[in-house]
From TrEMBL, chains A, C:
Protein's name according to its UniProt entry: Nitrogenase molybdenum-iron protein beta chain
Family as reported in the entry's similarity comment: Belongs to the NifD/NifK/NifE/NifN family.
Species of provenance: Breznakibacter xylanolyticus
Record's keyword annotation contains Ribonucleoprotein: no
Record's keyword terms, sorted: Nitrogen fixation
Keyword tRNA processing appears in the UniProt entry: no
InterPro entries: ChlB/BchB/BchZ, Nase/OxRdtase_comp1, Nase_comp1_CS
Nitrogenase/oxidoreductase component domain span: 24-442
Alphabetized GO MF terms: nitrogenase activity
Phylogenetic classification of the source organism: Bacteria, Pseudomonadati, Bacteroidota, Bacteroidia, Marinilabiliales
Automatic annotation (TrEMBL), chains B, D:
Its EC number(s): 1.18.6.1
Cofactor(s) needed for function: [8Fe-7S] cluster
Name of the protein: Nitrogenase protein alpha chain
Domain Nitrogenase/oxidoreductase component: 59-520
Gene Ontology MF terms in the entry: ATP binding; iron-sulfur cluster binding; metal ion binding; nitrogenase activity
Superkingdom field: Bacteria
């Protein structure tokens, strides 16, 4: 047993988190910042934060993740990090020449109380921000919320620093992308294209974190929302936020700042969430839904119907982020699977409420969010009564092997497989991909563990 | 093959420094050296990284919790802080471990954190830490619990050492509990974390258990080996085969008990000088255990390391056995080397990683006929470059001064003089004076060729320039560099974690490395980067019009 | 052991085929016929043929496969099947109202010597072929060639019966599709679209054998090459045949009949075969290759480079059809894998020649084609020295389980998994999918079989 | 729930026949019957399918090699013909088998074919077949080899029986070798193949081994059970639990040896009447073993079948044991039924499959409260519909006349009268006269409700019409029908191969079926077929304009 110390006996933990289903704010800010074209994320704190975030993102994407750090020393921690940040801005623009530096704070700079507005003003005063270049920033204290919060804060900063309302509204819908894979964003843009909807997506990590190998390292790959597009979001007719936890704040600010009305829907994972997204986009972009999309939907339904017997009633344990877990559980239910154990380290009521609604017909369900809603607890539940499938990030592989349970990797980080940034999990096509992955995991397990006389040519 | 590239590296410094802001350039100039082993230059090392420069470096916490304590399996390592630090150091270093039975403790797959929230920052986190320790004990019942401080801990004044003492008391000393002041902002890199870790190992574990039943007459400690990819397993195999007892490894595949008995060994071998030389010195000062720098990276280096052991113990039977093992192993290794050589010979490499690996791996590359054009450490000190002889001349700056130094004295009851002049003399007779390196380490610059570029704390910009100007056949660094380098069509071997390969230590490891490097330098896909329609010489297809 | 009687000891077999890597002609004809819009395939033979082919195709696609049969009785076998076919044509047009009936023969009707031309003439004379409707046919004796041959013969029949040259050539390139999945055809059309090349694909099973579930059964789904398009192939400027075994005959006939010059390339599986296809299409459609395609190529290269260590040197055994195996082996070699054992039941020199060229640097390679180049033999080779990976149809699962060897399903039939008609294996995207599948198979195996101390978070 | 649909099925025939060409419609009219059990109509069955009509049926080879001989594990079944027939019957029928040890023969995962080429068609294939047999023996060393003829074999005049004899001789009778003239064009469906298979089983295997050590006083054969999805395993479990010895099963999980000893049993139970009644009759004629029609499909049917066994053997101990088993099993089954019932009760089904299953599964559906609206066989004869009493009135047409009939006579040495009037009387007393069905079978029409539609050899067109007009909640047929039906939003249960479910026989099987049907009729995804933008009642989303 790899996790040999995990027993079914739960205790009433008050302080210790074990095997978290979350990480800290700054990495979310760093990831989101990569979705702006020409942007270099900057971690205002000690070197370790930046190194850890870059490493974690790199392991997941198997792509270069460029970011700089204020390299705090003990002195900066005592006297404040202003000098470090100003020098960093100077160095970065001189050496790496981004269009934007997107700085975020850390628990260190937050604890010592660095005032980002003031420091960035000073940088401007000191003349280290070249003409036409931008330094944006957001506060991402690691001890508040999680990586999801950091992502939301960064995306909100995009709006704060760039979105601008001119007198003329354009028939464009903003798509505010929650935390998903580049392939997911690409797929959502593809669907919007098929609908002939005019949209601006932000952030947009496609063509950034799934870049071709062409013999050069592009510090600023060709993807990412451009500054003009980001500015123009203020003139859009409507915003659709994809994922409440990650995009609602940005949508609200855009409404307050530029009077762009909005609707927040789930990340379009699975049949119904995609239905809602397409319906919303169709309505607000004022375009009909073409047959090509209806056909993709029909192919998803066909796939589920064809393989329904393999899905039905299977008990699933999941961990990850609320914006992913909510539509994902809904999707599993629509396939007649039974999500029974769900944890997310990210706190917040909407998760609990949505889960209660989606899983109302599964009386044995256990779900939990926030502090100590961790993978150790979920594993304890599994020890109490097993499941047929695990869905979550790579950390689940230890449970999968110990419990001999099929495992579909989804979420962040995935450090032991590749391809998750190629094949989308959003939209009808993505839902089909997901259903295929689930089916393969279940059937591979069946083929591996069944008695020889039960080994089958057709399944 | 075999057409060794002639590369002129002298222009690099000028080419690269221009780009920096003036003050930055001036600083970096001191860290970029054209090597001359005969007239060894001074390199700037172990100083602050310039903000904004995109460094390879991490933090003190990473060096302490991640590197040194990470590989221990039976200590519950609790990160006191917000969730991130514990999360990022959870299973990310490929520290393998193998317990003797399924029942033995192994906490490596677990991440423990106090998961500090804003209220803990405002009102202090000591109570939460205490409760976390109670819960850890109830759930895991470990022999030892370690507490690691993250950035805010020091700032808000949580005293992890006091908490450790109090909780130890609460548990009637049934659990060994100790803390580390390894906040991320201390020092200038992971290096500070190693030092902090070493001190606490010494204070809280080493020497705790005298009750030892020796399994062999020849008892050694191995320091600075972290069992990445199973390196320690291979070294254990070699020691076992030679009949030498490995009392402790710091800290690959280690246990609390092995640390506690380290002081009973008769010899200390140091692999990663940078991360652990403090412990080696303390063991000698307190207990009289001499130490030698060795390396098990490379077949010849491994042979040399074992011969050092033989020479030290000076036992004919042992020497014979070790020579037999070396002969046996080298025979197989040589066969593997000959398979790889046609693919690797004449190639060039660059190594930028860690505090010792950028040096050690030059041996392996030499065995493959690969020239190291340029190398440097991520968190080395001047002595790692220039040799320990420069230690007295190293200026202690403010960043280093903040790292705890502990004073170690002779343990009168347990000290035993081992390195008598006689022993040393015999060793020098057996190995040649230069090879003994007793209490010494000659550093990277003594080995890397004349004219090679030695660069400390390489920046991303410098890395791209190095590749652009000299296009090595293989680049060695870490995960953060890997994919940027490979986008340029150059394979990158991670020397922190070996990608997913290894072991590379010892004899088996050498063969693995030969295979893997032969594989990487012959990767076909890099030849396909340009699409046919992007190439000048598109071959006309023949078709029937 | 499931295949417990298979030993490493080969004997010099002269007559017995064991576990074939092929099946018979008519099923290929049936499959190809489904790629014409409004076409009902018809099996001229005993009922069993039609039933077997429909079942095999259905198991693979999990889609309705409609086809009719002449339902030979003993009497028809003695007196000839003319009456049966004429009656069948009458019944089919009356009840099922297709635009086209595509009849193919069987070993039965071939052995008794039914003359299809004469019988169909008679049907026309008898007035059972309504105005504007078509009966086409091809000869597919089961004892000649294999399912691959039947496919080629059917496709050639399309040209024979429909293609027509008018005086005006159009700037269109015909894409003659070899035996591949609907998703593969869809992907090739998508690439052609991105290139802005004007093409006609035939046959085209996309939107036929991957149809949405929409509450109705469409006897004739919306996909398939239309009759006008098929007629227009005679006016195209050029034909690109995708797969020599399956499309060369059709290309030659189109050249002879309508003077449409052609080039036969491999089915674009893998990097180099796709390079050749794109180059050919770009040249003959006279369109440049856009960056979007170059980027897809670069993403494939990136994926292979990122995961190269897992692929390098892995020994692979493969079975299937020559048009698939040739580019597939080439692709594996380009990833530095080692295809060591390859069998195809389909006879023909081009396979042997291409394999010899592609695998010239793998001295231990064994490959064989034609009679008795069967899976039993391949398994015997594996028993002699094992492999790291199996690639082929579902029949390989027995070997995979016995030998505890990772297995990627590819080819026909796949009866125990679903999704192969969703995700393409052609083009750069398809090659990436294939590489992902291979990687997952290898890493799943590693994770499952490694010692606990070697179980890794990152791979 | 529970709201039984009232469906008027009377209009179907008119609605559907109009579409056909006149002559075709006239023929089909005789195969489409509104049932009236009290005044049983005549149905047309086992006649040629009209060319072009899209039938469910297969061929004689499929019935012989695929259905009857397929499930045997220790016969090397060589298909003599082009590759297709052997290929398509390779592992496609879910015949499970379990050998006693890993060393026992199991050829089921293998496909053997002579893979005839054009030269074999032109010059004859007998020599190739002989060589194939030699190779099969060398590689597999089987007890028995069977040869199956495909269409061209008969036409070109290859004599598989002669080859069998010659090869048997060549092997000194060490291998039992026999052939089947099961060319695909014979007969009108798989049914002819069953008959041909039965004859050869009788001629070549049954009765070959008298050397039997009984394991029980109660020894029975089970005929017409092919172990799809493990059905035979469950029935074996029940027999074992009841202390009854299963001498042979034809042919699920069977061996050569079990066939050879079948004549030593004292009772024959027939499951699939259509495929195997010939063997049952021959066993009675030759050896005096009486046969009863039974079904293990359905919990009540299983109980009834076992009670028939009890009544026949008329042994108080056995009867008690059987009743105990029934009570024990039914208790668990009933609990499972109650779980499924709320989902299934009041639903409607249609069953079109095989030669017996379309009848048997009505029992299971009844247990679930599901009404069978319509049913019919793919290859049944009139007796399967109307009961064996109509056999004398069935006209033998040309297609049937071509199927070999063999003459069976009493085996004077081994015949033993078992069904004495006394035995029969006691059975009738115990079970009621109607239930005994000695040498009899009442057929599907006796069970299916009045007014239900009975349709033989359903065409695709008729199937679509049935669904369109009556939209049943579940449709049962085969793989060819499955996805067309499901495209219409109706779940289809394969009753040839159970999709990948099963076993469905016996008590455990009944529970599996309850679960699976409950699952199928509550499939959520079929409720989502229409996209929101295709529905009339699109619910307005609330959003903030």
């Amino acid at each position: 047993m790899l996790l040999r110390h995990t027993t079914p006996k739960e205790i009433d933990r008050q302080a210790l988190t074990i095997n978290p289903a979350k990480t800290c704010q700054p990495i979310g800010a760093m990831y989101a910042a990569l979705g702006l074209h020409g942007c270099l994320p900057h971690s205002h704190g000690s070197q370790g934060c930046c190194s850890y975030h870059r490493s974690a993102l790199t392991r997941h994407f198997k792509e270069p993740v460029m970011a700089a750090t204020s390299s705090f020393s003990e002195g900066s921690s005592v006297f404040g990090g202003s000098a470090n940040l100003v020098q960093a801005i100077d160095t970065i623009f001189t050496v790496y020449n981004p269009d934007i530096i997107a700085a975020h704070t850390t628990c260190l700079s937050e604890t010592i109380g660095d005032d980002m507005t003031q420091i960035v003003s000073k940088a401007h005063e000191d003349g280290v921000v070249p003409e036409g270049k931008h330094v944006i920033y957001c506060n991402t204290p690691s001890y508040v919320g999680t990586h999801v919060t950091g992502y939301a804060n960064q995306v909100t900063a995009f709006v704060k620093f760039f979105s601008k309302a001119t007198p003329k509204k354009r028939n464009v819908v903003n798509l505010v992308a929650g935390w998903m894979e580049p392939a997911d964003m690409r797929e959502i843009k593809r669907m919007a294209n098929v609908l002939e909807a005019r949209t601006i997506m932000f952030p947009d990590m496609s063509d950034v974190l799934d870049a071709p190998l062409d013999g050069k390292h592009h510090m600023y790959p060709k993807g990412g929302t451009t500054i003009p597009d980001m500015v123009a979001t203020g003139d859009s007719k409507f915003s659709i936020g994809l994922g409440k936890y990650t995009t609602e704040d940005a949508c609200i600010l855009l409404d307050n700042k530029c009077k762009v009305k909005f609707e927040v829907v789930d990340i379009p994972i699975g049949l119904k969430a995609t239905d809602r997204f397409i319906t919303s986009l169709s309505r607000h972009a004022n375009v009909p839904v073409p047959d090509a999309i209806t056909d993709e939907r029909g192919r998803l339904i066909d796939f589920i119907a064809d393989n329904h017997g393999h899905f039905y009633g299977k008990r699933v344990a999941l961990w990850g982020d609320p914006d992913t877990l909510i539509p994902l559980c809904e999707f599993l239910v629509s396939m007649d699977m039974r999500p029974v154990y769900i944890v997310t380290g990210t706190p917040g009521k909407p998760f609990d409420e949505r889960m209660a609604a989606i899983l109302k017909d599964i009386p044995e369900v256990k779900f939990m969010s926030g502090e100590r809603a961790d993978m150790f607890r979920m594993h304890q539940w599994i020890k109490q009564e097993g499941v047929d499938l695990l869905i979550g990030n790579t950390y689940g592989k230890y449970i999968a092997r110990d419990e001999n349970t099929p495992f579909v990797r989804l979420g962040f980080p995935i450090a032991d497989r590749a391809g998750h940034n190629f094949n989308p999990k959003t939209g009808y096509v993505g839902a089909t991909n997901l259903a295929i992955d689930i089916l393969n995991a279940l059937l591979d397990h069946r083929d591996r563990t069944c008695a020889e006389e039960k080994f089958e040519f057709q399944l | 093959m075999g057409d060794k590239k002639k590369v002129d590296l002298t222009t690099f410094k000028d080419a690269v420094l221009d780009k920096y802001p003036k003050k930055v350039g001036k600083k970096r100039a001191k860290a970029i050296i054209n090597n001359d082993p005969d007239n060894m230059p001074v390199i700037q090392a172990n100083i602050r990284t310039i903000p904004g420069i995109i460094t390879q470096r991490g933090c003190t916490y990473a060096g302490c919790k991640g590197v040194v304590l990470g590989p221990t399996r039976d200590i519950v390592n609790i990160t006191h802080g917000p969730i991130g630090c514990g999360f990022y150091s959870w299973l990310t270093r490929r520290n393998q471990t193998k317990t003797e039975s399924d029942q033995d403790a192994n906490f490596i797959p677990y991440c423990f954190s106090t998961d500090m929230q804003d209220s803990n920052i405002v009102f202090g986190g000591e109570e939460k830490l205490k409760q976390a320790i109670r819960e850890a004990r109830e759930l895991f019942n470990p022999k030892a619990i370690a507490i690691f401080s993250t950035c805010p801990v020091g700032l808000i004044g949580d005293d992890v050492h006091r908490v450790a003492r109090q909780m130890k008391e609460e548990f009637n000393n049934e659990v060994n509990i100790f803390g580390f002041s390894c906040e991320g902002y201390r020092g200038v890199s992971q290096s500070a974390g190693h030092h902090i870790a070493n001190n606490q190992l010494y204070k809280n574990l080493i020497g705790n258990d005298d009750n030892v039943t020796p399994k062999s007459k020849f008892r050694v400690n191995l320091l600075g080996e972290y069992n990445i990819g199973g390196d320690a397993f291979e070294i254990e195999r070699i020691f076992e085969k030679c009949g030498v007892e490995l009392v402790s490894t710091f800290s690959g595949n280690s246990t609390v008990s092995s640390f506690e008995q380290a002081h009973t060994a008769d010899l200390t071998l140091v692999m990663c000088h940078r991360s652990i030389n403090y412990v080696a010195e303390m063991l000698e000062t307190s207990f009289g255990i001499p130490w030698f720098k060795v390396s098990f990276i490379g077949a010849q280096a491994s042979a040399k390391a074992m011969r050092k052991v033989a020479a030290y113990f000076n036992d004919p039977e042992l020497t014979e056995r070790i020579e037999k093992v070396i002969a046996e192993e080298l025979k197989i290794v040589e066969a593997a080397r000959q398979v790889a050589l046609p693919k690797t010979n004449g190639k060039t490499a660059m190594l930028f990683v860690g505090g010792s690996r950028a040096h050690h791996y030059q041996d392996l590359f030499e065995e493959l006929g690969v020239t190291t054009l340029s190398a440097g450490y991520e968190f080395g000190h001047r002595d790692d470059y220039e040799g320990r002889r420069v230690i007295p001349t190293i200026q202690i700056d403010a960043d280093s001064r903040n790292i705890e130094e502990i004073t170690v004295t002779k343990d009168e009851a347990r000290f035993k003089e081992r390195m008598t002049p006689d022993v040393l003399k015999k060793m020098e007779d057996a190995l040649g004076k230069d090879e003994v390196e007793y209490n010494d380490y000659n550093g990277l610059m003594a080995q890397i060729g004349k004219g090679a570029l030695v660069i400390d704390d390489l920046s991303h910009y410098e890395m791209e320039k190095l590749i652009e100007l000299y296009h090595p056949d293989i680049f060695c660094a870490g995960i953060k560099e890997k994919y940027a380098v490979q986008k340029m069509g150059i394979p990158l071997k991670q020397l922190h974690n070996y990608d997913s390969g290894g072991p590379y230590a010892g004899f088996q490891g050498a063969m693995n490395f030969y295979n893997d490097i032969a594989m990487m330098v012959s990767t076909s896909i890099f030849k396909e980067i340009k699409a046919p329609w992007e190439r000048e010489e598109v071959v006309e297809a023949s078709y029937v019009y």
